[in-house]
Amino acid sequence: MSFSELGSRLAFLGRQKRHRHAVLISGGVDRGLEAATTLCERFDADRRVVFGTSESRPGPPGFILLNSAKQARRYLGCELECAILNCHEVFDPDAVGILAGCITAGGVMVFLTPPLADWPKFGKTTASVEGHGFSACLSRIARILANCPQVVRIPPDGRASPDIPEDPSPASPAIGYSDQRGAIDAVKAVADSSCPAPVVLESDRGRGKSAALGIAAWELIRTRACRIAVTGHGRRSTDTLFAHALQGAPKFEERIRYHSPDALLEERRDIDLLLIDEAATIPLSMLKDLLAAYPRIAFASTVHGYEGTGKGFSVKFHEILDRHLQKWRRVRLEEPIRWSRDDPLESLVNRLLLLDAETSASTIRPVASPVLVEYDPARLADDEERLRNLFAILVQAHYRTSPSDLARILDSRNLRLFGLEDRRGNIFSVALIALEGRLPPELTDDIRSNRRRPKNHLLPEALCAQLGFDNALSMHAARVIRIAVNPGFKKQSYGRKLLSGIIRRLEQDFDLIGASFGLDAPLHGFWLDCGFTLVRMGVRKNRSTGTHSGLVVRGLSDRGKRLERDAAKRFSRNLPSQIPLYFKKIDPQLLAGILRHNPAVPSKNSLDNRDLSDLGKFASGQCNPDRVSAALEFLARMALSRDCGFLDQADRELLDERLIQHKPWSAMRCLAHPSRQPGKREGMASLRRIVSICLENLPTHAANGGSLRQSPETVE
Question: Is residue 4 a contact partner of residue 42, using CB atoms and an 8 Å limit?
Answer without folding.
Answer: yes
